[in-house]
Write a structure and sequence with these properties.
Helix 2 packs across helix 7 and helix 6 (366-392) crosses helix 7 (400-424). The chain has helices spanning 2-9, 13-32, 39-71, 84-87, 312-328, 366-392, 400-424, 440-463, 470-491, 493-497; strands spanning 99-101, 109-114, 121-128, 139-144, 153-157, 182-187, 193-200, 208-213, 225-231, 234-235, 248-253, 259-266, 275-280, 290-296, 302-304, 351-354, 360-362. It is an alpha+beta fold.
Length: 526
């Protein structure tokens, strides 16, 4: 149950699942070596662990998300990260209980949604690309995960003078968009067309740049895009109509042969940190896939979005894809202090959370951090000495009491060391932005290992003394350890509860004199 709960709270719980899995494998391996157990009994042991440690946590985890979807059923700022189908289930969203035209026609005002997990809506605004990006200083095209009027595009024929259905038209005058059609997309707010040319994209130089070009909807031949509908077996049939939400589309640039593309790469400040949109020469890239999300046409009949709503299992899978995508793409904000994994065990650098009258600086207690590090090294040394002693036959000469203590110590300590490594080492492989607090789960295992090491060291030294001295030495040692722990906490207590009053460089400050390392930014908190 607790495995399922830990993973439900945060995906770091996956590391504790790995630790439990390793201990279970070791346990089953030991059972297999117990010849008193029959094969049927071993199978029962395996089945019991599979049900309790695999199936039950998975069911609990899935149930948590079912309850999550039930309670959090309303629209919010993050709607744009999810697919059109997912959004249709959120109360307050534009797509909830909405009726829209089933098919897209010339004259429709649409929004285009990139179909990758966390993909944005095709977007433009009046801002131009910077001059240093090339000879074409044209209007920016981006993907934006929030909804506004700058996401709306008018679908036109390639002949800019071709009339669109007007107020006096009837449904017989409507011409639907079909697979293979050549279209022009005009940005409703700025009257510029979706355009691509032989200029490198700003963040992805292997792709072509996509811009907004023209005046009042009049551009040039580089504004023409070919609609390609994907079917279940690849490309759709020629003449298939584009359906709202359900049709999976590619937009191929007529002259360049590249495909409208968006990915997780963010533009710099000049692009408002929105997602880059490019024209990708690689036709097979799944980030080239789009669907029509919004569709407005005065002459077309409307159908209910109820038809598009996904199942609970589909929502579960999509939410996880979006979470994973968002997590992997987290980048540091401008001026933000981040850290590297090797900083954490040595408490090299803290993190400023707030300044002003009430100051908060996240920093580990150096006595605890450095003490845990030294005790971890001591534990590894003891394990190495034990292996050496066993190889040389010295273990047999030890008293049974000491041998038993040593076996318990190394066995328990090794599992705690594995737990620390599982919660710490994977961060070296992560490309996302990292912070000091990511070390805290690993720190718990480090502290537990330190406790085991201290306990064993005191017990070992006590066992070597005269029986009359054992109680005094043991209790004195425990008292010294507790005294150091409490004093170190009191010394650095302002870090735990926040600071106010004089600044850190003032002798009257509660933090004065505590800048033990040059990288501690205690003095920077003003």
């Amino acid at each position: 149950m607790f495995i399922g709960c830990s993973f439900s709270v945060k995906w770091v719980g996956l590391f504790i699942i790995a630790l439990v899995g390793l201990t279970t494998v070791k346990d089953l391996w030991d059972l297999m070596g117990d010849l008193r157990l029959s094969v049927a009994q071993i199978q029962k042991h395996f089945l019991a662990r599979a049900v309790c440690l695999i199936i039950w946590p998975i069911l609990l985890y899935f149930s948590v998300f079912c309850f999550h979807f039930l309670v959090l059923s309303h629209s919010g700022n993050g709607d744009g990260f999810f697919s059109s189908e997912f959004q249709s289930t959120l109360v307050g969203n534009d797509l909830y209980d909405q009726k829209v035209p089933e098919y897209v026609a010339y004259g429709s005002v649409i929004t285009l949604k990139n179909r990758r997990g966390g993909g944005g809506l095709l977007h433009s605004h009046t801002h131009l690309y910077p001059e240093d990006l090339g000879e074409y200083q044209q209007q920016q095209i981006t993907a934006y995960t929030h909804k506004d009027d700058n996401n709306k595009w008018l679908v036109k024929k390639t002949n800019s003078h071709a009339p669109l259905p007007g107020a006096n038209s009837s449904i017989e005058d409507v011409e639907f968009i079909r697979n293979g059609d050549q279209i022009v997309l005009e940005h409703v707010m700025t009257k510029r067309n979706l355009h691509a040319h032989h200029q490198k994209a700003p963040m992805t130089p292997t792709h072509y740049q996509v811009t907004g070009y023209g005046e009042n909807g009049v551009g040039d031949a580089n504004d023409i895009w070919v609609v390609e509908i994907l079917g279940s077996s690849g490309s759709g049939n020629h003449g298939d109509q584009v359906r709202t939400v359900t049709s999976v589309l590619k937009l191929r640039h007529l002259n360049l042969g590249c495909y409208l593309h968006s990915h997780s790469t963010q533009l710099p400040k000049w692009g408002w940190e929105q997602l880059e949109v490019t024209c990708n020469p690689q036709a097979s890239d799944r980030n080239n896939l789009w669907n029509v999300e919004g569709n407005v046409h005065d002459l077309l009949p409307h159908v209910s979005f109820e038809f598009y709503k996904p199942s609970i299992f589909s929502k579960f899978l999509e939410s996880h894809l979006v979470m994973a995508e968002s997590n992997n793409n987290m980048k540091p904000k401008e001026g933000e202090i981040t850290s590297k994994p090797w900083h954490w065990p040595i408490n090299l650098q803290g993190q400023v959370f707030s300044g002003g009258d009430h100051r908060v600086y996240l920093l580990g207690n150096p006595i605890i951090f450095w003490g845990c590090g030294l005790l971890k090294i001591l534990f590894v040394v003891v394990v190495m000495l034990k292996l050496f002693a066993r190889q040389r036959g010295y273990l047999q000469r030890m008293r049974n009491e000491i041998q038993a203590e040593l076996d318990v110590f190394t066995s328990n300590g090794l599992w705690l060391l594995v737990g620390w490594a599982l919660h710490y080492l994977p961060f070296y492989l992560m490309g996302r932005v990292l912070y000091f607090h990511h070390y805290f789960p690993a720190l718990m295992f480090s502290i537990m290992l330190a406790g085991v090491t201290i306990e064993y060291s005191i017990r070992l030294l006590t066992a070597l003394l005269h029986p009359a001295l054992k109680p005094l030495f043991y209790h004195t040692s425990v008292a010294v350890v507790l005294f150091i722990t409490v004093v170190s906490f009191l010394f650095f207590m302002p870090l735990a509860y926040g600071m106010s009053g004089p600044k850190s460089d003032n002798p009257e400050s509660s933090m004065y004199g505590l800048k033990w390392l040059p990288d501690w930014d205690i003095l920077a908190i003003v």
